[in-house]
Amino acid sequence: MISFSDLKAAREARHHRPITVLDGAETGHASSSTAGSGDPSIAEPSSCACTRAFNLVSNAAFASTSTSASASISTPSSTTPAPPKPTSIDPRDTIYTLPPFLQVRRSEGSGRGIYTTKRIKAGSVLLLSTPRVAVLSTSQLSSTCSGCFLTPQESALKSGQPVQGIKRCQACRATYYCSIACQRNDWKEHKPECQAHKVLRGAWEARHSGENGKLHVGEEKKWVMSEAVRGLGRLIWARKREREVSGKDPDWWAEIEAMESHVETLPVAEVMRFGREIQILRQYLSCADAASGDRPDPADMVDYGFTSSGQLLNLISALTINSFTLSSPSLSPIGLAMSPITALFNHSCRPNAVVVFPNGGGEMNVVAISDIEPGQEILTSYIDVSLPREFRRKELKDRYGFECDCPLCKTGGSELPVGPDVDEGMELLRKEEEGTLDHTDLDTRRRLSSIIIPLTRRLSNSSHPVLALLRLQALVLTPPTSFRSHTLAITSLAQAYSGAQMVYPPGHPTLGMILAEWGKLLAMESPPEWGETNKVEMMRRLEPAVLVLRRAGMMLEMGFGAGGGLVGKEVEGLRRGCEGELQLLRMAQ
Ligand SMILES: C[S@@+](CC[C@H](N)C(=O)[O-])C[C@H]1O[C@@H](n2cnc3c(N)ncnc32)[C@H](O)[C@@H]1O
Predict the structure, then answer these.
(1) Keywords in UniProt for this one (predicted)?
(2) Which one of 55, 296, 378, 535 has the lowest number of neighbouring Cβ atoms within 10 Å?
(3) C-alpha–C-alpha distance, residues 332 and 140, integer Å
(4) Whole-number Å distance between alpha carbons of 38 and 22
(5) Looking at residue 288, what DSSP letter applies?
(6) 142 is a domain residue
(7) Burial of 210 (0-12, 13-18, 19+ CB in 10 A)
(8) How far is the CA of 347 from the centre of ligand 1 (A)?
(9) Is 341 within a domain?
(10) pLDDT tens-digit profile of 368-398?
(11) Which mutation among 317, 377, 402 tests ligand 1's pocket best, with the greatest number of atoms within 8 A of CB?
C-alpha cells in the first residue's frame, strides 16, 4: 500500500492474508528495531486490562489481489439482488446480539445468514464489533502495534500527535506497542503469550546460536508461532481465564461453539493435518506455564475445557471457515481476526456489504456498499472479487465447501490469459504477497514495466493479473524519484482505477483506496529538479488532484462508513491543503 504519510510528508515539507493453522513458527522477518524508534523497549507492565479477539481465513473482499494463476475477468453488470430465498428464524440463534433491524435466518442452501428488516442506504455501518481475537502476522509484529493494530504513522494520524516510535515488549521481544496504554490494554491477553514466547525463544536460541551466543542471521524470529497458533492461543487462554473465575464457560464461548465447522465432511488428509496442528497448539499452550529453559510436555486440553480431541478438531475447522483477514485502515492484510457474529454473513462475489477495519483499534465494521431493501440478505465476499471466476469458485469450494451460485458466477467466465509475461507478472505478485519483492531494486521496476506494456496491449485493465500489476507498479514507484516515475505511477493508478471499476461493485472500498492513492500522487510536491516549478504546471496537477481526492473522499465514505476511516481523514486533509494552494496560485496569477 502506498503510504499516505510519505506523500503527505512530501507535501508538508514545503507548505505546511487457506490458513495453515499450526505449521509451526512462521518465518516472518520482523526486525528487532523499528524505524525511528531506536528500539526503546517498554517495561513489562505489572498489572493490566482489556480483551481482544481472533480469526483465520482470507475473508476480506479487499485482500491482496495476487494468486497462483491468471485470468481475465467478466465484467459485473448490475447490482440487482438475487431473488429472496426461503428462510426461517431459529430460536438457537438468539444468542447473538444484533442491531434491531438485523435478523439471523436459516436457509436450505447456505445455513444461517443475516437479513435486514429495514431499507439500508449504501455507506451505512450495519454492524460494529470488536473481534473476539485479533493477531498480527509475524511479518507485521515489529512495525505495527499489537494493541491498536496501527503503525506509528497511522496512530499519529488518528491522534493528531507527532509520529512516535514503536516499542518492543522487553519480556518476550516479539510484540511491539505504540504506547504504554496500548500495552496495558493488551496485557491480559498477552501475558500467557508473552511467557510462551520467552520459553520458545530460549529453546530456539539454545539450538541456533553461534559461538558468540547470537542467533545466526535469518534465524532471529523463527521461534515466533504462526498467527493462527497465536490467535488460537489467545482464544483458549481467554476461555481458561474466565472458567477459572466463574467455574463455567464464558457466554461468548457459545458463539464459538455454534460456528459452522464442516468437520464431518473434512477429507482424511485435512483431519491428519489438523491433528498435527493440534499437537503444535498443545505444545505452545504449555509453554505459557513453563519456566524459561524448560521443554514442557504438550498441554492436557482438559485443563482448557476440552474433553475430547473432536472438540479441538471442530474448533480448528470452524476457525478456518469463520475467520477474517485483519486489515489496516488502507486495506493491507496485516493479520487475522475472528468475530463469530460477523462470520454469520454469507458470501456473494457481488456483495452488498464489506468487512473493514477503518480506524484500527480493533474496531471491525460491516458496511453496506449498496442500498439494501427490507427482507434482503446481507452478503459479504470471502475472496477478492477481482479474481477470475474459476479462481474464486475453487477457493470457495476448497476452503468454504460450497459452490457459489451468485449472479456473477452464473454469468460465466472468460479465458485465462497465458504467456511468459503473465507468468512473470504472477511471479512478481507472488513475491509481493510474500513480502520478498524489493521495491528499491531498479530491476524490479524494469521488469514490471516490461511486463505491463505488452499485457495492457492485449488485455483489459480489469483483467487478472493486469489490475494487480498496475497497482503494484504505482506502489513500487512511490515515492517517485523522478518526473518520469511520478508520471508513470499516476498513469498506472488511472489505468488501475478504470479496471477496478469494472470488477468491484460501485461502493467497494478498494475503489476509494485506488482513488486515494492516485489523488495523493497528483497532490505530491515535485522537487525543483524535476523542472515542474512554474505555477501553471503546478495548477495543472493540483486541479485534477482536488477532483480525484474529492471523489476518493466520497468513495471512502461509502466503503468504510461515515468519515471514510483514517484514510478518509487523510484524504480530506490533503484535499483541503490542495484547495488552499490552488487558491493562492490563482490569486498570484
Ligand atoms: C462464515 S460461514 C457463514 C455463516 C454460516 N452460513 C453459518 O451458518 O454459520 C461460511 C459458511 O457458510 C456457508 N455459505 C456461505 N455463503 C454461502 C453461499 N453463498 N452459498 C452456500 N453456502 C454458503 C458455507 O457453508 C460456508 O462454509
Answers:
(1) Metal-binding, Zinc, Zinc-finger
(2) 535
(3) 11
(4) 33
(5) T
(6) no
(7) exposed
(8) 7
(9) no
(10) 999 999 999 999 999 999 998 988 999 999 9
(11) 402
- State the cell numbers at 196: 510462551
**pLDDT tens per residue, range 61-113:** 223 322 222 222 233 344 455 667 889 998 889 999 999 999 999 999 999 99
Maximum alpha-carbon separation in the chain: 79
Sign of CA dihedral 424, 23, 204, 38: positive
Task: Determine phi and psi for 264, rounding to 5 degrees.
Answer: -75, -15
The answer to whether the beta carbons of residues 71 and 415 sit under 8 Å apart is yes
What does pLDDT average to over the chain?
84
Determine contact, residues 22/226, Cβ cutoff 8 Å. Answer: yes
User: If you write DSSP's letter for every residue of 377-425 in order, what string do you get?
Assistant: EEEE-SS-TTS-HHHHHHHHHHHH------HHHHT---PPP-SHHHHHH
CA distance 586 to 578: 12
Cell of 242: 474466565
Residue whose CA is at the smallest distance from ligand 1 atom 8? 112
Query: Bridge partners of 379?
Result: 346
Which CATH number goes with the domain that contains 582? 1.25.40.10
Q: Grid coordinates 484500527 are at which residue? A: 360
Among protein residues, the one with the nearest Cα to ligand 1's atom 15 is 346
CB neighbour list of residue 166: distance below 8 Å, 6 or more residues apart: 34, 37, 142, 143, 144, 145, 151, 152, 176, 177, 178
Q: How far is the CA of 571 from the centre of ligand 1 (A)?
A: 36
Would residue 520 count as lying in a domain?
A: yes
Domain that holds residue 448: 420-588
Count up the domains in the chain and report the number: 1
- pLDDT reported for residue 31: 32
| Cβ contact 86:477 at 8 Å | no
CA dihedral 434, 436, 440, 444 (to 10 degrees): -90
Coil/strand/helix, residue 500: helix
Q: CB atoms < 10 A from the CB of 292, how many?
A: 12
Composition of the chain by helix, strand, coil, percent to 5: 45, 10, 40
ipTM value: 1.00
Flag whether 385 is in a domain. Answer: no
Ligand 1 midpoint to CA 345 (Å): 8
